[in-house]
Amino acid sequence: MADEVLSQSEIDALLSALSSGEMDANQLKEEEKEKKVRVYDFKRALRFSKDQIRSISRIHENYARMLTTYFSAQLRTYVHISVASVDQIPYEEFIRSIPTMTVLNVFSVAPLDGRIIFEINPNIAYAMLDRTLGGKGSSLNKIESLTEIESTLMSNLFEKSLDNLQDAWSSVAEIDPVLEEFEVNPQFLQLVSPNETVVVVSLNTTIGDTSGMINICIPHVVLEPIIPRLSVHYWMQNEGQKERKHGEYELLTENLEGTVLDLKVILGKTNITVNDFLNIEKGHVLHLNQAINEALTMESADEMIYLVQPGKSRNKVAVQIIAEKEGGNQDDE
């Protein structure tokens, strides 16, 4: 039984009853000592902790932002998607809660077992389809008479967004979502047993002037292998310690090695008046503050990085690095 939160008026009434003697404080203490019985419904088994539900919500908040960006670019209209709720309920209850005819995309998420369902409200699905075909994004619910072309276009639209789902879950597990089935009647989908616990993520979705819901149904069997990773402890432990993807380090190194870096060698510096500067001619000599036997400095982005000495290489003016800047992390050359 959840703790009840009293309003200010209820608190005032309780204090008044205690002060007037209508209610005995000792009696309240005795009632608190009595064993509390909490009703547990085995048909609504709670298999996820609040901490894990919060983690799933955080993942899909990130996913919702990615979907907003993706569909805004694809449909070229106003799109806003946000997480409305994250609940754990029996699979049978989820099936009863969605329309009898709706748009259902079923995805596998290898290497995890089982499949997940994307239920898209027909109003939203048709608004997306209308925009894809060049319309204004108006909604027309004719879910019972979908043509094969319309079904394919709807499936392709969400299939291309699977990279976003993969990225959103990458902090917890590397998954490879693949569209396996398109259906309009939820009664034909029996992913798990009716009493199996599923997590339902409901997304508030607005496409132009049309609003509706997108529901993501994730069975417990899918998340079971990675449940320990859904804790705050795991997230904090792995923050900043994520392994780079295969080949990412090599690609980064290759790109850095090809970067062009501007270097300049400072022969010396001097101060002159503006009048002298305006009257400089060929043959004039400027006295620099650099002694002939002192090392020159090599700079990049106006920061000294090496000490060098001038010379020639293959009959061309060159410099030789003789020391690095004090405190640098490069090997001396």
UniProtKB/TrEMBL annotation:
Q: Which GO terms describe its biological process?
A: bacterial-type flagellum-dependent swarming motility; positive chemotaxis
Q: Cite the CDD domains for this sequence.
A: FliM
GO MF terms, alphabetically ordered? cytoskeletal motor activity
> Where does this one sit in the cell?
Bacterial flagellum basal body; Cell membrane
- Domain Flagellar motor switch protein FliN-like C-terminal, by residue range, is 255-322
Which UniProt keywords are listed? Answer: Bacterial flagellum, Cell membrane, Cell projection, Chemotaxis, Cilium, Flagellar rotation, Flagellum, Membrane
Q: GO terms for CC?
A: bacterial-type flagellum basal body; plasma membrane
Q: Does the keyword Membrane apply?
A: yes
What kind of membrane protein is this, topologically?
Answer: Peripheral membrane protein
Family per UniProt?
Belongs to the FliM family.
Indicate what this protein is called per its UniProt record. Flagellar motor switch protein FliM
Source species:
Amphibacillus marinus
